[in-house]
Amino acid sequence: MGIFGRKDSDGTTTAAAGAVSPDLAALSGDYVIDPAHSTIGFVARHAMVTNVKGGFEDFTGSLHLDGANPALSTATIDVTMDSISTGSADRDGHLKSADFFKTEEFPTMTFRSTSTEALGGDDYRVTGDLTILGTSRPLSIDLEFNGAATDPFGNQRVGFEGKAEILRSDWGLTWNAALETGGVLVSDKIKLTFDISAIKNAA
After folding, report:
1. DSSP 8-state symbol, 97
2. SS3 of 60, please?
3. Which end of the chain has fewer CB atoms surrounding its CB within 10 Å, N or C?
4. What is the CATH number of the domain that holds 191?
5. What pLDDT is recorded for position 24?
6. What is the pTM of this model?
7. CA of 35: how far to CAs of 19, 42, 68, 173, in Å?
8. β-strand 13-14 against 156-167: which pairing, if any?
C-alpha cells in the first residue's frame, strides 16, 4: 500500500494483501531525516570500464508528508561536501579540490523540492532544485515508499528508497582526463541513490 493509499476499480481505498496498513492520516506531518540510518550515495564510471561508488557522511534534511494530497508533500536536503567519501583519501581530496567541488568556497550542496507526484502504488516522483557550486538546476528523484513503523524508542518512522541521474557538466563539474585508448577518465553521467529513514516530529 502506498503512503497515500491506492484506489481499487470501485473507487475504495484498500491496503495491499498482507501489508500493515497504518492510518494514512497519522502518517501526515513533518519529519526529520535520520542520518544514522540513511545514506546519500553516487556512482560514477571510471576509465570507461568500472563503477566507483561514494557517498556523503554528513547531511541533514526534512520531509513534510501530506497523506490526503501528495502534491503538497515537500523535501529539503543539505549535504556537507567536505564529508564526501569514496574509500580513497587521495580521491576524496581531489573531489574536494578546485577541480571538482571546491568545498572551501562551496561547502554545501542543497536540494529543495518544488513538486511531488504520485506515480501509482508505492512510487512517487519528487522534483526540485539541486544546487552545486552555486548553480541550481532541476532534478527529479524517483522514490519508492518502503513503509512505516514505530521503533523500540517510540519514534514513528517512514522509509523511502530513491534514484536519479544527472550530467555533472550541467553544474559546472567538467574536469576530466583523456584515455590513450579513447574516452575519458570520469563519466559525465552520475547516478544518485537515496536510502532515507525519517522520524516524525513530536506533536
Report:
1. S
2. strand
3. C
4. 2.40.128.110
5. 60
6. 0.86
7. 27, 16, 27, 26
8. unpaired
**From its phi and psi, is residue 133 left (phi > 0), alpha (psi between -120 and 50) or beta?**
left
**CA distance between the termini of the chain:** 25
Q: What are the grid coordinates assigned to 15, written together? A: 491496503
Cell of 66: 501530506
Helix (H) or strand (E) holding 137: strand 135-150
Tens-place pLDDT, residues 74-98: 999 999 999 999 999 999 999 999 9
C-alpha cell at 75: 523535501
pLDDT digits (tens, 9 = 90+) for 134-186: 999 999 999 999 999 999 999 999 999 999 999 999 999 999 999 998 999 99
Half-sphere exposure of 112 (CA within 13 A, CB side): 8
State how many domains the chain has: 1
- Whether 8 is in a domain gets the answer no
